[in-house]
Each structure stands twice: as structure tokens, then as C-alpha cells.
Amino acid sequence: MSLAERSSPQEIAAADVLRKLAIVWTEFEGRLEATPLIRKLTRGRFELADYHAFLVNMRQQVKDGSLWMSRAASSIGEEYLELRSSLMNHAVTEHRDFRMLETDYVASGGRLETILNGKKNVGSEALSSWMFHQASQPNPFGLLGAMFIIEGLGSIKAIEWGKLVQTRLGLPKEALKFLLYHGENDAEHMEEFAEMLRMVLPDEAVAERIVMCARVTARLYVMQIEEIAA
Amino acid sequence: MTELRDSFITGTGVFLPGAPVPNDRMEQFIGCIGGRTSSVGHRALRWNGIDTRHYALTPQGDILHTGASMSAAAVLAALDDAGLGRESLQFLATATTQGDYLVPGHASAVHGELGGGALELASFQSVCAASFMAAKSAHLAVRAGETDCAAVVASEFSSRWFRPSFYEGTALIDAKGRLAMEADFLRWTLSDGAGAVVVEPKPRPGQRSLRIEWIDLTSLAGRFDPCMWAGATAALRGDMINAWSHQGPRAAHEAGAIALLQDFALLKIVIRAWIGVYLEKVDTGRIVPEEVDWLLCHYSARSLREEIVSLLVNTRAMIPETKWFTTLRTTGNVGSASIWLMLDAFLKSDSAKIGDRILCIVPESGRAMVGFMMLEVA
Known about the structure:
The complex is a heterodimer of chains A (230) and B (378). Chain A is mostly helical and 230 residues long. Chain A contains twelve helices and no strands. Chain B has helices at 26-30, 41-48, 67-81, 106-114, 130-143, 181-187, 244-247, 249-255, 264-283, 306-314, 328-331, 338-348; strands at 8-15, 21-22, 52-53, 91-96, 120-125, 150-156, 193-200, 210-219, 228-229, 261-262, 294-297, 357-364, 369-377. In chain B, helix 3 (67-81) crosses helix 4 (106-114). The model of chain B has no long low-confidence stretch (mean pLDDT 95). Chain B is globular. Chain B starts with 7 loop residues before the first strand and ends with a strand. Classes of the chains: A mainly alpha (230), B alpha+beta (378). Chains A and B meet through helix 2, helix 9 and helix 11 of A and helix 9 and helix 10 of B.
């Protein structure tokens, strides 16, 4: 990208939002680090029961992920067809991810029906309800902020947690597919996301909405992790 | 009420012990653990990009200087650079990671070395960012009119903690005689020296001075466990009940709780947390990247991973590498002293023009802290 393009109003607005999102993200990481479950993981007190509780709790919310994304896509007007395509692609890529949590659970010694019959915890309930509510609004661009948080979990945290779980519990890779399978945190990823931002910016109200949506999503996600107890 | 005054850095001074030690001679100074060459060294050096450093001890393990004597030498050099002498000094703020004694504070030891009459002291112990704690204390003392001549000094004598006796006979060595990565890596990263600056309420007539615009320090220790520490084993460090002193020195040593350690998985997260604090400063306008003429960062631009550089570029927060000034390659990583070594070399390089704004950044992995200082060439 040329320097002139970098300083276009669209580019500047996207950079401003991306900066605010990165700040929300690092604040989010700090909060995650201080949750009981992650403390157990980083302080070497994580046990198989913790991993099982994690998988059961996550499945109930991950299952909803591609559903709210699909709903969001259907709420996007035809003047933003590119963004709609992007969201639909994302939804397709991820809509079977919760199955991985089930196979991980079984591969690490859990019973399939236990994870299938799991209930959403308080945080997962709040998170899913919030996502569906947002996705039902016309042109729900705020959800880009939520995607930034959720995508970051997949590209940054999953692999970190996966490696720690593997080290602590000595589980085979087949029992860690959900955490270890997620993509790398690369520069390309960031560029793709910036491209989506440029589709809806500059627009001050949208920018504000994206950042607020990221903040709420991050807080509800932390609540979901806080609620996981073996 | 008296009005706040400006504060200016009017002199800088450094003390680097001995001759520069190249990479292939490091182990002659810090020794080989269990008589075997480290397997971590090459990787650590590739990552930190250091070519030479200084040590305050000899290959035989003889101590040439102390943390206090190196600090005192740097203070005198800084006073001299400001056109002043020991008799002018009123206030001394010191910084170090680990002083010579456990008690009393390092500032007392430095004052002892300096000799002379009464001083007001402030003694700061942390890791790299201790330098800015000391600087802020001096800056505020001058600003408030409490002192007219303050010195800030930071020193490290890391190599003494890297000698084999700190590791041999401890749980940090595995059955094959190899030292744990979390201990060995730092041995290839940190080295010795001291740096100081003089702070006064007026610029020095006829000579370039640096007005201190502001100094900000942010700790995120409330969310993160220790990342670089000494005093507990890696597994038990989350709870202060496991501090070395509770087990007694011998048991703590055997457990590997005395040596300096680093958690590399956590470091990656802490680096992002630093970037978050920086981006927040850009977002609120405290730092305007385009208005920064020089960046002195206690972290090498080359060590930043591609995704971090990409994030900085995409958020219009990157300060181009052409504006970065560092001495890391030749003076090594001297912890809290590094920023003053860089500032001294930068001023002597004659690159700064009147009105230039210099941003200094000191991240501290100790327990997720980062400090920023904005200077203007006056």
C-alpha cells in the first residue's frame, strides 16, 4: 500500500479503530490472566478436570459462534455485499468447530453425552445473548469489534493455552485439536481485518460502536472463563 | 504556593567496567555450569543482537568494582559533564535490580562511595524501569523546588549472579547436567555498568540541555504473575508465601529459588501488554508518533516480532526505525542503566538539534511494567 493510501481518511479511521481495539485486547489479556482457570494453568495447578470443565463450558458457546455470524450476515444491507460475503465465509469456516471440542473431550477420557448435555454458564449465556442481539440489528457493524476479540482468542490465546495444557497434562495432540488447530497470529490476519474495517469506515458512530462492542464482548468473555470451575 | 519549575538534564555520565567482551569470550567471565558449554547461548545472542558487553569481574572471578562504586563513578562523570562537582549535589536517586547488600538501600551504599556531606536519598529497586522511578523522583524534587541539584544513577552488576555457584547443586540443573532455559537465557542477555544524569531547574548556559516534559510509569502487576524474578521457583512464584526467605537461604538455593529467572511464555503476553500501554498513550495524544524525532528504547526493534510491527504500522503508531537510537549492540543490556547509557551516547553523537523531541521507553518484564519519558532538546 502506498503512503498516499495510508493517509486516506478511510485508512486513518481504520487505523484509529484498530488502535483502540488493540488497547481493548491487551486489557482483555490482562483480565484473562487473572481469572482462576488461567491462573491454575500458568501456575502449574491445572488438572484434567479443569480441562474437561473448559471443554464442556466452551462448547456451549462456540456452537453459537457461526450462528450469530450467519445472522449478522443476513442483517447486512446489499450496499455492503463484500462484508456480507466475508462474514458468511467466516461462518462456514467455523460452524463445525464445536465438534472439535467434543472429540477433544472424548479423546481426553470424557463421556460424549456429558459434553453434549452441558449447559451454558452465566458468562456464556450473557455472551451469546449479547451476540445474537447485536447480530439482529440492521447493519450490525459493531460486531467487527466482537470479531476482533473472538478472532484474537483463536489466533493468539488458543495456541498459548493449548501448549500449556499439553505440557501440564501430557495429553496427545488428538485431545487438543480445538486449542492447537487454530490459525497462526500473523501479519496477514491483521491485514484482512483492517480490510473489513475499511469497508465500513470512516463513520464516527460506527467506529464508536465497534470499540464499545469489543469492550462488552471482552468483558463477557472474561465472565465466561471466570465461571468455569472444575 | 510556589509555582512548579521546569527540570532539565544538564549532564550525563557512564561507567562501563573493563574492556568490551565479545560473544565468544563470555563464558570465560560468567563461567561454564558444571564445566560444560551452554547450548542456549547462540540462540539468546541471535535474539538479543548483542555483540559486546562489559563485566565487573575477571575470568578468575575476582571482583573489580561493586554496584556502589560503578554508580558513584557514573554520578561523578555526570556531574563533571554538567560542569559541577560532588559539592554541588543535594539529592541522589539510585536504581538497581539487585544492590551489593540486602540491607540497607543501594542509595546509602552509593552515598558511602561518593563520600562528602549530607544528601537527600531515594533508593529504588525494581528491574529496568527502576531507572525511571529514580528519574521521576529527581524530576519532581526539582520541579517542586525541593532541590536545585539532583543526580539519578542506575547500575547493574548482573554477572556476579551468573557465576556457576548460583546454579550448581540446585534443582535448576537437570539429570544430564544442563541448566534450565529460564535461567540460562538471562546469562547471555544481561551485563554490567552504570549510567547517571544530573537534573537541575535551569538549562546549562551555552550547552545543550534536555527539558524533561514528563515521565509516566505504568505497572500491570495486579493482573500478571512475575515474569523475570529472583526469590522463588518458577512453579511457586505466584504466591509470596513461597518467597526464598521463608525456607531459609540454603533450602532456597537448592530449590533454585535464588537465581534470576525468566518465564518466556508469559513474556510474549507481557510484550503485548506494553504495546497496549503505548497505544493508549498514542490514542490519548500523550505521545504523537509524528512529533517524536528520536526514540531511545530499551528494547531492540529487531526483537519485535513481525505481527507486533505490523500492528504498530496498521495503527499508525510506529516510529520508523531510522529514528531509533540504541547502544544495545556494543554496551549490552545493562538493565536499569541501559537507558542512561543510550542517552549519554546519543548526546555525544551530536545528532540532537534544539527543539528535537526525544522519547525514551523502558519496558520491564519483571512484573509487567513500562515507563516513558519525553525530553525536549533546549
